[in-house]
Design brief:
Length: 100
């Protein structure tokens, strides 16, 4: 299910945007350092990896590149997020009884 959030201009809602774009705008607005910006990129990239529709994914990447960075930055960040998620899922799960 695609989540859209209204874009407010004045008192009227004039268009809609994808949730990830809306969130990125909010996060980058308050990011006050390069470290915080990198955290924002990582957080948004982690969400982007769940988009299955290639057209929606490409549109989000394009819009994010206008907001911050370049297309390559976002594609690389998503690739990294996917790799980290794969590593996390490949780790053996320790149960409490195994840890003792």
């Amino acid at each position: 299910m695609r989540q859209l959030y209204p874009q407010q201009r004045g008192l009227y809602f004039t268009s809609e945007k994808h949730f990830i774009i809306w969130l990125a705008q909010k996060r980058f607005l308050v990011a006050s350092s390069m470290v915080e910006e990198r955290k924002c990129v990582a957080e948004i990239a982690d969400l982007l990896r769940y988009i299955k529709d290639q057209l929606v994914y490409d549109q989000c990447i394009e819009q994010l590149s206008k907001l911050h960075g370049k297309i390559k930055l976002w594609r690389d960040a998503v690739t990294q997020a996917r790799g980290e998620a794969r590593k996390k899922n490949d780790r053996p799960v320790l149960h409490e009884r195994d840890a003792a």
